[in-house]
Amino acid sequence: MGIRNTLRKWTAYQQTVRELASLDNRQLNDLGISRADINRIARDHVSQL
Questions:
Q1: Radius of gyration of the chain, Cα coordinates, nearest whole angstrom
Q2: Which ranges carry the YjiS-like domain (predicted)?
Q3: Fewer CB atoms < 10 Å away: N or C end of the chain?
Q4: What gap in Å lies between CA 25 and CA 5, rounded to an integer?
């Protein structure tokens, strides 16, 4: 894995975490996720890139 790919994945991970963390608990609940799921969801998203 090259440095560009690693940086792209890190950026995508951080953006996903930031966007999900900005939602309130009701919005997260509407999506069927909890705050504890945010990091896992971000990791799963990045692994698909």
A1: 12
A2: 3-38
A3: N
A4: 32
Q: What's the count of helices (H) and strands (E) in the chain, helices before strands?
A: 3, 0
Please provide the distance, in angstroms rounded to a whole number, between the alpha carbons at the two ends of the chain.
Answer: 12
Q: Note the pTM of the prediction, 2 decimals.
A: 0.87
Nearest to 20 by CA among 47, 43, 3: 43
Which residue type sits at 39? N
